[in-house]
Design brief:
single chain, 26% strand
Amino acid sequence: MTHISPLAFVNPAAKIGNDVRIEAFAFIDEDTVIGDGCHIRPHASILPGARIGKNNTIYEGAIIAAEPQDFRWKGEKTEVIIGDDNKIREHVIINRGIRPESATKIGNGNFIMAQTHIGHDSEIGNRCVIGNAVKIAGDCKIGDCTILSSNALVHERCEIGQWVLIKGGCRVNSHVPPYTVMAHNPISYYSVNAFILRNQKMPEERIDDIAKCYRHIYQCNTSPFNALKRIEEDVPQSEERDNILSFIRNHNLKIAALNFDTLAD
């Protein structure tokens, strides 16, 4: 049974699912959709263009589908699309897209901590942890099962692969390939994300092969072009190896913490 506090404002045009709880002083505007089982806590704001799935909890002071902070946006109708089972903590701001019919997208099962800002048209995958006060600029993409520690900054148009750990306060200014740990400022390769991968029961030999890939890329003093050729010759084929190769090639060999020329030696 849906419960709406008499002290909340819910626009009559909002679409509210079953078993939704909307607490005092929440603000639900027109052109919004809130799926079954959601909990909207006090002082949260759900603005036009919000499309929220099932069983999400949105905490105090969060703003969903805020107008983009971008001079290119001229009032076009855009959206924020949020999946299921997310926790969006206090004072998180999620901007909607800037291009006609575009959207900022949040997947399923994410934990987005307090004071995080997610910019226009960015995409967060599934089962990510976004730490306190993380700032994600526009047109970024965060892969599944990635952790951004507190106060990390992700620059515009950067993509972070799956199963990545970005350490606290790190400034991400380029694309981060999967299964890595990145740290420091300027950003540098720290290690393979082995602790998390072991917790997910990945076989040790697969983790060793991932580490071998990144030794070729970051520790052999060669160009990315040659590093990828060496990986193909030296590392057995696997889903993880292929994910690393395709990620780097799809980004024109330009990845974080690697400053070599992209041409072959």
